[in-house]
Amino acid sequence: DKVYFKTHIKKMRDAIDKHAADRGTYPDSLDELVTRGYLRQVPEDPLTGRRDSWQMLPPRPDSAVQGRVADVRSGAAGRGQDGQLYSSW
């Protein structure tokens, strides 16, 4: 369900943004968000049923903030009912 998925991804994106605001860098991994207390655990990707399938996206080349994980997307293949690729959500 797209709403359930968006809730999970919003929590992760918020944690990434808080990490960047607090520490001045993006995290190097999703596990770092757990280790530093920004997430209790890496949430399961509802589309794959796995915690290790998230695609981690680096910061844009023109970003002033460094680090490895500036955003996340689902690692699921395929399209949702709206025709959009899962990886674009």
Structure write-up:
This protein has 89 residues and is mainly α. It is 31% helix and 7% strand. The protein has two helices and two strands; from the N terminus they run ααββ. The longest helix has 22 residues. It is globular and about 40 Å long. The mean pLDDT is 90.
Order of helices and strands: HHEE
Sequence stretches where pLDDT stays below 50 over 5 or more residues: none
Tell me the strand order in the biggest sheet.
1-2
Secondary structure category: mainly alpha
Q: What is the 3D form? A: globular
The end-to-end distance, rounded to whole angstroms, is 12 Å
Determine Rg (CA atoms, Å).
13 Å
Helix percent band: 25-40%
- Tally of DSSP helical segments: 2
Keywords for this structure?
globular, 2 helices, mainly alpha, 89 residues, two-stranded antiparallel ribbon
SSE order and pairing:
Layout: H1 2-23, H2 30-35, E1 55-57, E2 71-73
